[in-house]
Design a protein that fits this description.
The chain is mainly α. The chain has one domain: Rhodopsin 7-helix transmembrane proteins (Rhopdopsin 7-helix transmembrane proteins, Up-down Bundle). It has helices at about 1-30, 35-40, 45-60, 65, 80-125, 130-170, 175-180, 180-210, 210-225, 230-235, 250-275, and strands at about 70, 75-80.
């Protein structure tokens, strides 16, 4: 049981971080290429990539299932001597930090920088026009830029402390860990909570604030709800989707940026609560 818990903690953290990385790449393709995203940003492609990420990081973290054992005191610790040396001196010292935090952060940061540069170029071109639609587009671009910078900063600020704490704990002497056990567990719990808040905030931004998720959730309620209000909810769920089949590419980009704008406002409110 202890091995399964450790495996799930590490595997779920890796999977979550790389799903956010896929979302950043998807967002870059969506903003950068008007026609390519119709081929790549599809539900079938997303399901395939998610499956690959889940399987890959489950296999990468499978070493916890045979490397950890329960000792006589009931503690779950790495058992074979070779595995202890690998885990302490390599995996938990630098491999886990690079794999779990640095690589996803670098990819997300690069994608966001590319998106911001594209939006900046568009903003300089749109300055010459003064129509209401162009001004609205510029405002959406500015708020999307702030959202992208905020996600990159929060990723490294909320994820890195937990990994650094794991690295330091493996280098503390046993006497030091026994003497300051309470303080170490307190700081570890705080850093883990920060890490989980980061994942929870992204679930809120990308899922609960998304119109597609809300529409599907309303359909689910319509299917199971047996009260007199069933027809009203179903009528609302059957309203037209955000993107019309006859909408041109510019209108589609405006509508998609509008979705990011709504997510930005929700994310800003959430980050304010976290800072408070």
């Amino acid at each position: 049981m202890c091995k399964s818990v450790i495996f799930l903690i590490y595997a779920s953290t890796d999977i979550s971080n790389y799903l956010l990385t896929l979302a950043a790449i998807d967002r870059y393709i969506l903003i950068s290429y008007r026609t390519a995203h119709y081929r790549f940003c599809r539900a079938s492609t997303a399901k395939l990539l998610i499956t690959i990420v889940v399987i890959m990081f489950s296999l990468i973290n499978s070493h916890f299932l045979y490397g950890f054992h329960v000792d006589q005191d009931g503690s779950c610790l790495p058992a074979p001597m070779k595995y202890i040396e690998f885990y302490v001196h390599h995996y938990d010292s630098y491999i886990d930090i690079i794999k779990t935090v640095l690589i996803p952060f670098i990819i997300i940061f690069i994608c966001n920088i590319f998106i911001i540069s594209i939006l900046t170029r568009k903003h300089s071109l749109l300055r010459r026009t003064s129509t209401l639609r162009r001004r609205i587009r510029q405002e959406k671009d500015r708020q999307l830029t702030g959202f992208l910078l905020l996600t990159s900063i929060l990723f490294i600020v909320l994820s890195l402390p937990s990994e650094i704490n794991d690295f330091l704990r493996t280098n503390f002497t046993r006497q030091f860990q026994i003497e300051y056990a309470c303080q170490l567990w307190t700081t570890t719990t705080i850093f883990i909570l920060l890490h989980q808040i980061h994942h929870a905030s992204h679930f809120y931004v990308y899922t609960l604030t998304g119109p597609i998720f809300r529409k599907e959730f309303q359909k689910l309620i319509c299917y199971y709800k047996k009260t007199n209000h069933k027809e009203d909810i179903c009528d609302y769920a059957r309203r037209p989707t955000i993107i019309c089949p006859h909408t041109n590419h510019d209108d589609t980009d405006d509508q998609r940026l509008g979705v990011f704008l709504k997510q930005t406002r929700s994310f800003s409110r959430l980050s304010f609560k976290i800072d408070a």
